[in-house]
Each structure stands twice: as C-alpha cells, then as structure tokens.
Amino acid sequence: MRKFVFLAMLMVVPIFLFGQSSQTNRTTMYMTYGRTGANLREFNNMLASKGLSPMRNGYSNLSFGYLYRFNDFVVGLELFQNHGPKSNFDGYEIDYNSTRFYLNVGFSFTEEGRFQLIHYMSIGSGFLNFQMLPNAEPETFQALMDNPAQGFILREGNLHKGTWHMTGFLTEIGFQMSYDLPIPGREEAFELLARFGYSFSPFEDSWKMNGIRFNAAQSGPFLRIGAGITLPDQNFFYRDASLGAHLVYGQHFTRPDELNTVLEENGLRPFEGRPNNWGLKILGETKGFLYGMDFYNLGLSGDANESKTQTLNSLRIYANAGLKFFEQKNLEMGGLAGLGYGNIRYTLTDNFKPDFPLLFEEPKHDGMMKNGGLMAKPEVYIAYGIPISINKSRVILGLHGGYELPLARYRLGDLSMSKYMANPYLQFSLGFRP
C-alpha cells in the first residue's frame, strides 16, 4: 500500500502545484557525482573481534535527476546508484552497493537568475546489496550450476526482482548551489551545480540483514558536484522549448529460453513469464529536436527449488535523440534513437543462510554471474497532453514502442544471452511537461 501512496504523491503533488499560475519557471536535468561518509560499525566490530582490518569508510554516489522550479518552490525526481569500497579477504571480495529513488521538494533563497541557492528535502525508498564472493566468477555457466555455493549475497528491497520491490523510508536534507553558462543560439543553458547535506535512514532496523544493521550504507554526510541542461526562465514559455519528466511502465516481448533449458537440465525451475519494467524518462524538445535519457529496470524472479531463489535482472540506460514529426493541438508523434548501456545478472541464493558471525565464517551459500555492454534502440511514440494551467503546463499520456539491439555478446560464462536482450517492447508513460 505504501508504494501506491508514494506513486500518488509523485503525480498528485506536482500536478496540484504546477496547476497554479506562476511567474517564474525553470526545468533542469542533471547528473552529480560525490562521496558520502559512512562507517559500517557493526560489521567492522565483527571484523575487529576476529583481528581483521575494518572496511574503509564512505561510499560513492552517482545520480541523475530532474528539477522544476516555479516561483521560489522546487520539486523533482532523482535516481541514485551508490558503491561502497571493496575489500579483499582470503580470496573473497567484500562489496556493497545501493540504489535510491527520491522525490525532492524545496525552496529557493535567490531570485530567478544565473545563480541559484536552493534548500531541499528528499523522501523515497531504496535497495541494498551486501556480498562476499570469490574474486573471479566461474568460467562457464555449467560450473556455476555444478557448484552454486560461491559466497553470500544479502539483499534488502530486492531491486533484482523488480523495481517495486524497493523498500524502506529514506530521507535527505541538503543545499544546492548552481550557476548557468549560456549556450549560444540555444534556449537551453549549461548548468554547473554542487550539493551538500546529510542522508538519513530514520528507522533503526530498516536495513538489518542476518543479524547486522547496515543503516550506514544508506546514510551519512555528502558532497556532490555535477552538471546539467537547464531551461532558464526567460526562454521557458516558448512553445518550441520544453523539458518533461515521465514515469514509464513497459512489457518486453522476450523470454530467457536458452537459460531456462540449462536450468531445467540441472533440476531447477525455469523462469516464467516475460520481463516488465518501471523506469524514468526525461524528454526535452527544442524546435522539433528531441533529446533525453531513459532509465529502467527489468526483473524476473522465482523459486529455483524448495531451498533456493533465483533472479534474472537487467538495467538499461539510454541517451536519446530524435525528431518530432507531427503535432496537432494536444496530440504529437515523434521518433528517437537511443544508445546506452545494459547489463544482465543471474543470481541463485540460498533461502536459509545463518546470521553473522557464522555467515562470515562459512560464506558458501550463493552464486552469481553477470555481464554488460552497449545497447541501441529505435523508438517511436505518440503522446497526448492534458492542459492543467494557463502557462501551458500539461500532464502527458504516452505510448512508446521500439526494439532493443545488443551491441555486445552478453555471455554468462559461455551462455549467450544476446537473444534475450534483443527484443521489441511497449511502454506506457505518465508525466509532466511545463
């Protein structure tokens, strides 16, 4: 239920606010990179009790976001991928990473202009992965089937099962400073920005896995710098310049048939159904030229047998460019070409792992194989805009169709997954465009 409430907040709050008449407006898409200070205290204490060195403090942050300013108020969406430092122990690599999805709201201390100072707060949910696996993967997929107990993998809010499995309540409070650099001949400007503040995981046991709390992996003081594309106020109301944010849900018409055959040959259950996805699409337009970014996550999961669970996950990130070739009143059509990154990850996990410290002493329970590379896609879309204010802001309903083309081999050991990665897809989108 809380997930549907969060989705309602994402859509209803912006529509209510954007529906008001305002005199200054700005939209921005941006990327940031930085560091967050963190100490996995309970896990490090366990290592210290065994006479081992602690894991290094802190983790890196890579984010992509969309921000809309109306008058002095700001609202936006932001995706984070965070990576912890890797440690080596007795032939194993200990590592953790997390994903977050935030709704940002805030207030600007400065008038609309090249320099902006914003105070904001974020709320959202996330995913945490903590693992201890051998330094090298098995050479073949059959080797993983023969010996699946490679190490251990702990997941909370398991994104690998699908986007809606993200969990927890995460918050962030911070400040953003930015400065615009004009782009000659363009409505857009290049924006440089910096952020600092503190991330929180308010509930003590939200990220407790196998007897140890990992809350610090989702919290801590941070400093990030970044850059983006922004539509300043003086150019914002041009009908031929806009930048919108859209939530997308889609179906991919593919099945992991080759993988399922190998699973059945080894006494495991095959994956059922087709992968679907939830994601974020940012789409901008200037005089009929389209540009933007896509982020979405495909997940399949199920029981492998009575004691094990398996997932097949793929992340897709695309940079898109194209043309709008039809527009009549509130209806439009366009085409895009995308080039980006995709990965494929198969995980087989034991459902009955012990708690720490025994899990650290006897780590062989789970196994995983992964690969990644370039992806490309052509896409066409049709969209209908519903006006919600006098300044031409609209709710956008869209239908997107395309075909994904793998530009890499995508092998899990010796098992090719290229056929699975190449697929037609259909997506529905709901978004906002000023």
UniProtKB/TrEMBL annotation:
Signal peptide start and end residues: 1-19
Keywords of the record: Signal
Keyword Signal belongs to the record: yes
UniProt name for this protein: DUF5723 domain-containing protein
